[in-house]
Amino acid sequence: MGDRVAVVWDESFLSYDLGGDHPLNPVRLDLTVRLARSLGVLDGVGLHLPVPATDAELERVHEPSYLAAVQAAPTSAWDVGHGLGTPDNPVFEHMHEASALVAGGSLVAARAIAEGRADRAVNLAGGLHHAMAGHAAGFCVYNDCSVAIADLLAQGVERVAYIDVDVHHGDGVQAAFYDDPRVLTISAHQHPLTLWPGTGYARELGVGAAEGTSVNLALPPRITDAGWLRAFHATVPSLLKAFRPQVLVTQCGADTHREDPLADMSLSVDGHRATYQALRELAETYADGKWLVLGGGGYALMRVVPRSWTHLLATVLDRDLDPDTSLPADWIAHTARLAPHVPLPTSMTDECDPSFVPWDNSAEDAVDSAIRDTRRAVFPLHGLDPDDPRD
């Protein structure tokens, strides 16, 4: 599969740097690519260079006045508004250029698929799913996920399914396509009563002809691999089968991990690996193998994100890594110099078993309540029986 996968990467992505001790530190991208290279995951893979998105491409999902504010912000002497200059989204030098480059990377990946040059494509720097049409939010300036989906539609793709496995609700992408029946958005996230941004309830379904194309799986805090995968498999495959997407877009935030400092889920790197493999199978089964892969959140910068996303790259490239694979000595030495206070893992596993019991509509715990809430809200709108485990 390697020759049919477009991997978009360049060190210029590291310029998307919110500065100081901001949680979204680009070191996580650098360490991921270093680890993937050291383990041979990227051997023989020709990398595709990102090209900045144009204003016209960004304006498919963002307001012109917002682009103007982003462009002016670094040199502006007054409050530019639009969610810029906040602790979450501080203004930084060349903010527009860095943000447009991330969005352009996702466009390069999307077009490789739309133009038939690749079946799969990945931009780990992407996944900035919180940015709204007219304002920044949640560390995200431009919503590359939405920009890429809008471009796929402009290229003639008729149905796109977007799956968001970040711990936070994929609110910006949902908002961008809330009234568009061509896009199915599915977000599996920590329950909005317990985590920012406070949206993503099962009752958020889309409007008009798009009712039923916004799907939200709001899960309880502290959920483990077994519960998360149980809920995922109880909802997502059936909806994809009914929707019949031509391209599957996935936002693969790694902040569901038990060590992530910004959330309260309890997944492991092993659970992430199982999730990525499930997404690959879904793309093959329901989207004719067309799979656009984007990064996302993840703030355990040294211990978690590089391992999780190296598994993601390996999965996309069909070069799956044994969880017991040892971390290379050169990578450990480099990372230890950056963060000598952080005890580093020694292998690609958390030694967790990600197996799960499939949902059968018999249990009464919080995970199964979440499954039922989502299925009962949206399944009938797709002609599916919410109470029948076979649907």
UniProtKB/TrEMBL annotation:
Domain of life: Bacteria
GO biological process per UniProt: acetoin catabolic process; epigenetic regulation of gene expression
Every Histone deacetylase domain range: 22-315
Gene3D superfamilies tied to this protein: Histone deacetylase domain
UniProt keywords, alphabetically: Acetoin catabolism
Any Pfam family matching the protein: Hist_deacetyl
Keyword Manganese: no
Pathway: Ketone degradation; acetoin degradation
Sample GO molecular function, one term: histone deacetylase activity
Family matches, as SUPFAM superfamilies: Arginase/deacetylase
InterPro entries: AcuC, HDACs, His_deacetylse_dom, His_deacetylse_dom_sf, Ureohydrolase_dom_sf
Keyword rRNA-binding annotated: no
Family per record: Belongs to the histone deacetylase family.
Protein name, UniProt field: Acetoin utilization protein AcuC
Protein species of origin: Crossiella cryophila
